[in-house]
Every structure is written in structure tokens, then in C-alpha cells.
Amino acid sequence: MTTQRLPSWRPGPAREAILSFLDGIDAVPVDDRVAYLDNDGTMWCERPAYVQYGFFLDFLRRAAVNDPALALRPEFAAVLDNDTAQISEIGLPRIAGALAALFDDRTPAEFAAAVDDFAERYRDPARDVPLASLVYQPMLELIAELRAHEFTVGIVTGGGTEFVRRVSLRLYGVPPELVVGTMIGYSFTRDERDRPVLQRTVHQMGAANEGPAKVANIQSQTGRPPILAAGNSGGDREMLEWAQASEHGGLAILIDHDDADREYAYESTAATFQDAEPITAVAERLGWVTVSMADDWEQIFAVASTPRA
Amino acid sequence: MTTQRLPSWRPGPAREAILSFLDGIDAVPVDDRVAYLDNDGTMWCERPAYVQYGFFLDFLRRAAVNDPALALRPEFAAVLDNDTAQISEIGLPRIAGALAALFDDRTPAEFAAAVDDFAERYRDPARDVPLASLVYQPMLELIAELRAHEFTVGIVTGGGTEFVRRVSLRLYGVPPELVVGTMIGYSFTRDERDRPVLQRTVHQMGAANEGPAKVANIQSQTGRPPILAAGNSGGDREMLEWAQASEHGGLAILIDHDDADREYAYESTAATFQDAEPITAVAERLGWVTVSMADDWEQIFAVASTPRA
């Protein structure tokens, strides 16, 4: 190739380790060249709030206009008031379940349309940029470099599978079947003309796709164990260890949010997964590649393409 | 194209309907061109016994040599004696669960190696041909024609997902993430060196992937609703109706086993799904494309390529 590889990555041990790993990839059969990249905090910015939380909040606000009784439910009152103490007391799983249930009985197509509508309108609350500008430019370049080496690239998320599927094709070129997240349930019913209808239901919702579940779900849903994985939080730990333990000798990449000036600086933990040891310490102990956003990335955010007219 | 399309399909209403559907496919966005094809009885022969049953039986016979106590378990005794009355009394779900549990604690890689080993050795008990010769040549041509029209082609099965994944890439060129079947459970553990290990377990096994479950599982696992589906039994009914009900106007194809001379003649029902109305009558009533193996297929079985040396 004549173009520079990973152009937004500064020279240093992280870029070096990734390119060196890819330079040795000829020894790995193409079918086994699989990478899974976590979404929130790895592929795109997860602060000041998860994008999917913004999606639910946007939908709830508009639904509450038509149905004021919604705002009286404790879960929704806490969210609408942004009452962090109440949210914490009620607990994120119960809040998330209540928000997901707003879409109960919707078909997959109706839910997809709601995500599309939101994605077109969304502006990041802190930086006032469109959705595509939340994505990390160096990670798009990593995907391009992986594909140049005939990798199959999947996305993994603690968030909702169907939400991330809808944006993954548009933002990353990753097809729906390679997105592994938390599963909504579906019930099969029939309409008045006896035609089949599939409807969302939280009642058969899967467990949160965090920690060990990420590993089991990648295997169950796609049958594709990764030889490269990237993540940023305690919820990615088992997946990163699993990729590293590949019989081919895998690569585990940890994105460290240490750039308060250009992005955010925070210790990455998953709400659902409490670990005594900071994930950066785990990375160092186990020999993962730690990516310092401050030091290793020349450019952080992707420049959004012109919105569709 | 200069080559003839669907060369093993005889001229007639079935071939006509499929080609006519594909001739109009330009109106459908490429991302929505999705086909799901059932495996047993649709892609390959399911008589005199399911291939996966042969796989389990082969494994059980060899395991019982090392561990004679296995043969004393009622489920296994019935299978080893081919005692159909006993099998029927115990029930297929319990038998299937006991057979699947033979692989409990195996890793995905160990299970895959067992399938590969079996696939290399397998001979059809009735015709004494290798695995690849169980596949229907006209269905391979249908897959080729679908791909020529930029379809994403998936495989759906009432059998085990991981078993079919291992043969789908080899036989149909369908990658693991596009195989939707009955899920085994996985448990995440660690070895003596604290490295992550994923092990099979029947304790979190999913429900049988038949009937409405096929629809829900295709959506959940792949997010890809089909606009074309092919099946052969009552267990495929909901999937076929779902494909037909696509907003793009879908095509449902039923393979009718009506050729006792060249294959088998039987009314296709799924053991797990009893319907009062024969599936061929459902097909006629709902306007599906019914494929008569006797009339519509000039050649039935694929000629196996030379086995690997």
C-alpha cells in the first residue's frame, strides 16, 4: 500500500504492537482472522452519557407529552429529572428494563425506524456534533487496516443489540449479524389477517452482555472466537483475555481514556461489573496493548460526512 | 451471464417463479436481500436419519467402548439398540439432551474437531456416499443464483447450531454467523493457569429452533429478516410465512419429498411441531412455491468432490 497505515496513530508502542501483530497475520487462516471491538468508549464516545440512553430519553420525553402519566412512574421520573441519586437508588438494570419496555410490541422495522430517526437528529450534548462525530477516527483506521488483512470485524456492546446494529452498518460497515449485544426478546404473533408479526418484549430479554457473557454470546451468536479484541472497561476483561488466549496468539487492546483536554479522563469500569483491580492495571499485568488517547492518537474524533439531504 | 441459470431445475412453474422473483430484485436494496434456507430435508437429505443423529450415534458407540456403563443409561440403550419404541417412549427431546450432554465441558474447538473428524469419515447408511453427496445439487445452484443477485444467504436448522456451522462453510460457503439453529449453552471458566476457557453445557441449552422460534431466533441472532425462505416441514411454516409477508413481497419455497425412486417420498412434518393440515396443503393455500423433487429437479444429489488426501 502506498498510503500510510493508521495515519491518526502516533508512532509509539501501541501502534507498533498492532502493526507488528498484523505483519505476522499470514500464519493465521483467513477464516480465523476475527476481531471484536467494543462499542461504547472503544469505538465511540460514551460521555457525558451513553448514546442509547440519549435515544431512550429522547423517546421518553416525546412519549410523556402525549401520555403525562408516564412521567409519574418512578423509573421515568428519575430519568426525566436527571435525578442521579434516584437513578442510583432504583438501579440501572431496572431503569434500563423500563426504558426498553417503552418499545414493547414494536416490530423490528418500527424500532429500526425509531433509531434511524434519532440518529439523524442527534447532537452530542457536550460538543454539539452529529452522531458520526462521536466515532474515534483511529478506530475507523484500525477497522480499515484489519479488513485490508482480510479480517472479519464484529462489534460487541453491553447495550442493546438491535440499537447498535442499526448504527453499525452506517458508521463502521459492520453487518447486523456481526453485532453481539444485550438481546431483547421477541414474541411471534399474527395480525387480523393472520399474517405473522414479530414484536419486541422485555419479558424474554437476555442478561446484560458484559463480562463473561460477552465471551459466551460471541461464541453462541456468531461462532467466531476473536484473535484480536479491543475494549475499554471491566466489562470487556474476559473478552480481552479470551482473544489473547487464542491458539494463534491473540492481541488484546485496551483504550485508556486519559485525555481530559480533547475527550474525557476517567477510570473505565462497567456499571455491571465491579473489579477491585483497575482495568489498566489488569492490562499491564497481562501484557495487553494499552492505548493512551492522549499520547497515541493524533486525532481523536472522526469528521462527520455531510448529513444526508 | 452466458451459463444457464439453475441448470438442474427442469422448466416448470417452480423454476419459473424463482427466476421471475430474482428478475424483479433490482427494486430491493442490497442490504435487504436476505435468504434463509432450512438444512435437514431442504439443503440435504434427512433420511434414513438426521446426519447429526449419526454424529451423536457414532460418538456414543465409541465412547461406550471405553465406558460400558454409558450403554446402561435408558436413553443411550434405546439409541444403541435402535429401539424405536423405546426412543419414542422416552421422547426425542430427552434423547437429544442426553446425546448433546456427551459433549458437556468440551470447548468449541474440541467440538469442532469432533465434527470435522466425523464429516471426513461419514458414509450415508443407505447410499454409501460421503457427506457432500447428501446435498441437493439444485439447492447449491439456488445459492449461487441468489449470490449472483447479491443476496446474503443464511442457513436455519432445528438441529444444533455449532454442528451445522461446522459443515455450512465447507458445503455451502455460509459463514458461522449466518447459521441459526438450536443453541447449546456455554459456561465461562478458567484453567489452572487462570486463562479463560469456554465450555459447552446442556444446562443453558436453548429451546428447539422450530416453528415460531425460527423466526424469533433469525431476528435475534442475525437481525436479518429474509425476503426468501425455503423449507420442507411444519417446523418451517412460520419462517416461510414471515418471508412471504416481507414488505418487499417475499418468496416462500417448499421442498416436497415426492420422489421414492431417486430420494424418499414422505409427508414432511417436524417432530416438534404437529399441524393438522399437511404442509403441502398450507403451501397451496398460501401461494408458496412448491418444488416437486420428482418433477422439478433433473438431478437431485450433488456430486461430491474428491475427498481430501
How would you characterize the overall build of this protein?
The structure is a homodimer of 309-residue chains. Chain A has 309 residues and is α/β, with parallel strands linked by helices. Chain A has a domain at 13-47 and 130-296: HAD superfamily/HAD-like (Rossmann fold, 3-Layer(aba) Sandwich). Helices cover 39% and strands 14% of the residues of chain A. Chain A contains twelve helices and eight strands. Chain A has helices at 13-23, 51-66, 74-80, 84-90, 92-100, 108-121, 137-148, 161-172, 212-222, 237-244, 279-286, 293-296, and strands at residues 34-38, 152-160, 179-182, 185-190, 196-201, 228-231, 251-256, 289-292. In chain A, the strands form two sheets. A six-stranded parallel beta sheet of chain A has the order 3-2-1-6-7-8, sandwiched between helices. A two-stranded antiparallel ribbon of chain A has the order 4-5. In chain A, helix 3 (74-80) runs antiparallel to helix 4 (84-90) and helix 6 (108-121) packs across helix 8. The longest helix of chain A has 16 residues, at 51-66. The radius of gyration of chain A is 20 Å and the shape is globular. Chain A starts with 12 loop residues before the first helix and ends in a 13-residue tail after the last helix. The model of chain A has no long low-confidence stretch (mean pLDDT 94). The A-B interface holds A 31, 108-109, 152, 154, 161-162, 165, 169, 175-179, 183-188, 195-196, 198, 212, 215-216, 219-225, 238, 241-242, 245, 247 and B 31, 108-109, 152, 154, 161-162, 165, 169, 175-179, 183-188, 195-196, 198, 212, 215-216, 219-225, 238, 241-242, 245, 247.
